[in-house]
């Protein structure tokens, strides 16, 4: 298995191009199942999760084409892909495929809305918690689907198509909102989605669906209204920048020191996280190319955070922020309210010399003066990258195992950091 070797202690200086958002690209690709026309998506990151979803969609009969390189494009400037679901031959998503990536469960909504049936494996547990799908199924039932669980599969059917309804989520769910949007887009009548997720990725999906002919208002607010249409058409859409990748590199600079421009990204996608970073002492400015993050030698101030649905502090940046706080001056309290088991990085950060105490959903981080490199590993994507950040700031060598987690969500990680002066390399197994 590949490993990443880091020799820490070098500040980051230069420019990092930010990729298209994985968590926007995935639902956008799934939305291709809503139409027999071609959906062209630009700025799609080259990631293992994207490749896995291409395989899953291919199993349903979706054709996939990668548009050739254009002038000025590098292997890091995102790819343009075309997806055409004109010959869907199978409305079943098998366990072997769905278990490789949870988000693929969302295919249930477009399959059901367009073909009246879908059989999709339950995704099962994952490293960051139980992550049930009850609210996704509730949304589909409200839209008139009949749902049964049979042999580990959700079997969903509708007799005469889905029907508009009032869907009131008792808890904010990104996946639930994606599923409700895709189902309602082709339902008969009006759907109101209350307590909808406001994440930028939800807005991106809604904007793409609108280009495909859907009638949606209110995306980005807690109340989305969808007037169903009989059919959707093809469209071209550019995936929005990855706010989690942006925040991750911003935290890396805040921790190692230096001066980096994060290119092709937008501050409004993660304002609360940037506000928190500024409070720790990093200088954050908007520049025409994107966002500039600077930190000089002055110490890192300790700040408390609580993860929350957007526009709150994202759970997908919690591990990275904890890495930063391990070197803060004083105590930081980090509360995780979205996932019940998202502290796997704590034990690994401790291997680098961090002082962290867990108390239920609260991590209490006592800043230390320095971290020292060590072999570490992690069991999810964001936890793994928190170890990269910590390794960059630690003295000596850090070796990160199970690199496949990073490949799921960070495009060209070593190249992007390496060009800014980081001493980081991949050792192929
Ligand atoms: C999305 O997951 C993201 N994944 C996650 O990113 C992200 O952490 C999460 O949203 C929260 O922002 C993708 O976009 C592919 P949720 P999702 O439904 O949609 C509970 C990463 O590292 N819940 O908003 O699965 C759930 O257990 C990943 O890129 C139910 O109880 O998350 C959680 O506590 C990890 N029942 C909360 O809601 C349900 O039916 C929010 O989950 C659904 C969710």
From TrEMBL:
PANTHER family associated with the record: UDP-N-ACETYLGLUCOSAMINE 1-CARBOXYVINYLTRANSFERASE
Keyword Cell wall biogenesis/degradation (UniProt): yes
Binding site for UDP-N-acetyl-alpha-D-glucosamine: 102, 131-135, 316, 338
Xref: InterPro entries: Enolpyruvate_Tfrase_dom, Enolpyruvate_Tfrase_sf, MurA_subfamily, RNA3'P_cycl/enolpyr_Trfase_a/b, UDP_GlcNAc_COvinyl_MurA
Pathway in which the depicted protein is active: Cell wall biogenesis; peptidoglycan biosynthesis
Positions bearing 2-(S-cysteinyl)pyruvic acid O-phosphothioketal: 126
Function summary: Cell wall formation. Adds enolpyruvyl to UDP-N-acetylglucosamine.
Primary subcellular site in the record, as a coarse category: cytoplasm
Species this protein is from: Methylobacterium trifolii
Recorded family membership: Belongs to the EPSP synthase family. MurA subfamily.
HAMAP family named among the record's database cross-references: MurA
Domain called Enolpyruvate transferase: residue spans: 7-417
Catalytic activity: phosphoenolpyruvate + UDP-N-acetyl-alpha-D-glucosamine = UDP-N-acetyl-3-O-(1-carboxyvinyl)-alpha-D-glucosamine + phosphate
Enzyme class, UniProt record, top EC level: transferase
UniProt keywords, alphabetically: Cell cycle, Cell division, Cell shape, Cell wall biogenesis/degradation, Cytoplasm, Peptidoglycan synthesis, Pyruvate, Transferase
Subcellular location: Cytoplasm
EC number(s) stated in the UniProt entry for this protein: 2.5.1.7
Top-level lineage group: Bacteria
Active site: 126 (proton donor)
Protein name: UDP-N-acetylglucosamine 1-carboxyvinyltransferase
Protein residues bound to phosphoenolpyruvate: 22-23
